[in-house]
Amino acid sequence: MDSLPAFAVGVDLGGTTIKAALVERGVGIQHELSRPTEAEEGPAHVIGRIAEMVQTLIRRAPDHQIAGIGIGAPGTVNWERTAVVYPPNLPGWGIVDLRKALQEALGIPLPVFVENDANLAGLGSAHYGAGRPFDAFIMVTLGTGVGGAIIYRNRIFRGTTGGAGEIGHMSIDYEGPLDRYGIAGSIEAYIGQRFLSRYARYRLLTQRHSLVHQMAGEDLRNLTPRLLYEAARAGDEPAREVLAWAGHKLGCVLASAVNLLDIHKIVVGGGVSAADRFILEPARQTLRRYVIPALRDKVEIIRETLGNEAGMLGAAQLVFQLLEHPSEELEA
Amino acid sequence: MDSLPAFAVGVDLGGTTIKAALVERGVGIQHELSRPTEAEEGPAHVIGRIAEMVQTLIRRAPDHQIAGIGIGAPGTVNWERTAVVYPPNLPGWGIVDLRKALQEALGIPLPVFVENDANLAGLGSAHYGAGRPFDAFIMVTLGTGVGGAIIYRNRIFRGTTGGAGEIGHMSIDYEGPLDRYGIAGSIEAYIGQRFLSRYARYRLLTQRHSLVHQMAGEDLRNLTPRLLYEAARAGDEPAREVLAWAGHKLGCVLASAVNLLDIHKIVVGGGVSAADRFILEPARQTLRRYVIPALRDKVEIIRETLGNEAGMLGAAQLVFQLLEHPSEELEA
User: Any bridge partners for residue A302, and if so which?
Assistant: First the structure.
């Protein structure tokens, strides 16, 4: 092979939408496409759809040359990065070898790498986003759940089976509320979207003066984190208190991760992180109190400003990394 | 240089005792020495003493050739692994460049590497102890404090500044008891020797039927974890309950570490771990409940049977590793 093409395709395989981008190495996204996933039609349909998007993007690349394709999906991927394993957002999928299927659908044996989407968001941040100044950081993605990734020496720290970074299921209270896995006091059971919405609803139901009562319907049945931020931005003190409570919990779990890893920078992405001052500022205060003294002046929480693009950029970056240094990443 | 000598000296620089061993690579300790530290005499005295021990051991090596010297010390070492930084067991020491001082004392520029003692216990376990079957595991050392290390791909995972593995200060309850750093609910505040002794004393003071009342003096003022194990081994139910309580807490913090790192094997060393069935069995049960479902069948807690030797073996192993692959470990 001659020198590696400077372009790759990064795919974000979501439950409702497939996003794909042509990424120029070190520069960013050059073209971006979006299609409904239609996951209910099955893997073959979805893979055909990804192949079409990839072909469209290849035609936009110089000389129609790309280095390969990176695909991000939620949940587990296999260690070889070829397959999704019971992806939670694609019901009924089981284990699907995306590399093989996509290569067949394309009719060309382009390199294909599959990786967990939170890990790719971290890798994208490391090379194109808020993580660029650091060669090691913890990525936290606040959304429906609490996703995480460990970036170390500008690469994904994979652990033993490729699943490292599950910060969402670290516990901050061994007798705390249960998350969906039955783990007591995991951070997701406090600030995952469903849990935070329920907590906020119970806490604010009797606080009739809170703005959220004008926004979230009868009995606050439509209360979401997003409505909390809107109320907080409008000056609503009860909503701010809920978000500060969430930020405090986030700071606790981050401190445990920092103490264990000796990694001092934390990049927070995802929709919730838009509420920087209401969640992240309390998180910063708590974080400093819960890390060992030697780290108190070093810890820092930074907000990621890349949105969905982080995952696609990370997917493309993974292709470049693995083709240049296969042994470092792929060995067990 | 010709091929690397197959022997190195591993030193364990304790607050009261210096231990040093001549280690044959892949085989184990060939000779071992022990001297009082006499730390109050200052760094020059202690370094002179280490130099004497090293010289004695070099004379036992084939052709009087060793690859180098590894030194383990508690607390922080600098990233370059040349100096201890305010070692907690050597009061008044500040930052001491052990490499330079020892090379000068020896009069020969042998390679010298300094590393945190918990990290070296982990490395020793990885190459000579219970960690041998695994290329990644979490090492926990139960003693005065709760030490930790992360072994990944048979090497020490160092983090950003060389301080990774501080599992003792991970919190399991954000409103729990404070440790010596003021961190709420850190595992050390439950099972560190001083904390566990105090908890046991208060819990057992009124349980007059417990054997510990015959062992620990008036008002249980001499109660230690070791006495608890002795009582537990003698069948004392109250003592067993205290140790099970400690094991449950240990399982909680290990689960958070496992979830974050995706490292499934845990090697427990240190004096407390002798109480395998009383502490580690409850820890195993809790651990399984607090890790994500995908890991429940994979997690395993193994007891390290090497004692102090683990640290010296690890110190020697570090010398071999760093001389063979300097860039992998030393780059930032």
Answer: A267
